[in-house]
Amino acid sequence: MNKANENHHVSLPAFDAQAISDAITNLAFFNECHVFMSVGSTNDTLKRMAASGAPNGTVLIADSQTKGRGRFGRQWVSPPGKGLWFSILIKPGEISTNRWHLLPMVLGEIIVLNLNKLTPVQFHVKWPNDILFNKQKVCGILCESVSSRHAFDYIVAGIGINVNNNRPEFPPALQGTATSVKLAIGHEMQRTDLLLDLMRDIGEKLHQIFVNQQVLSVNYWRDHCLDFNKNVQIRAGKKIHTGKFIDISDDGGLVLETENQQRMIIPYGEATLMKEKR
Ligand code: BTN
User: Fold this and answer.
1) Which atom of ligand 1 is closest in space to residue 71's alpha carbon?
2) Is 254 in the same domain as 206?
3) For 159-175, how does the pLDDT look when each residue is reduced to its tens digit (9 = 90+)?
4) Domain residue limits at 240
5) Are 150 and 18 in a shared domain?
């Protein structure tokens, strides 16, 4: 990456909450949109709003999060003015779980397609729902479902995209593994333009899934996975599995070939590439 570009600043507008909210509520699927300067976690705040009656298709966007959460209870660093940190409330109604559990992968597909359309570089999906540039993470997705005895179940789909973060803004532990769109392309990107492009595609897809009952597929992931035939270690709960990553199953699991040629499907976990033996 070009050093000069790294220090090149263009002044970008802060979020225009009213314009964003008007644009998003005009899109398919989205019924309400709230834009906040800062929240703890957009997932947590949206869950509280859902508990007090927020409708299906409510979107919550924050300029910064003080307690942004990632998978496995990790922290998701979300400084102001830098990224897209937002959550979408989905009330799936009668559609059964096995129809929508691929949602995180489908959201990942939409995000990577938009990043690749809007920038000259190539971003990639990494199982089960990360987006990487040059093997470093630029986006994470945290879908959480909530059930209660009194109300029907709902899903909160949280998306975090490092858009204009500079390298020093990542904590030391993430310096080698995290990146941003800005670091990938060498200049800042308008967060609002990216957000609205994404929300248009996400809204259309959610409408297809939850209104038209479209069946979801992982074909994009199969066609674009860079890690097939590589040796991986998968952390799934307390278990660690190792073997060769050979496919993604129809329901989104990682198909692993173990050392004794057994095939197993790991539904969910975290995959790390193993160093190749010499
Ligand atoms: C991951 O670990 O890869 C998932 C990261 C998800 C981060 C997003 S930011 C918006 C939403 N609110 C949160 O607290 N987390 C998600």
Assistant:
1) 2
2) no
3) 999 999 999 999 999 99
4) 227-276
5) yes
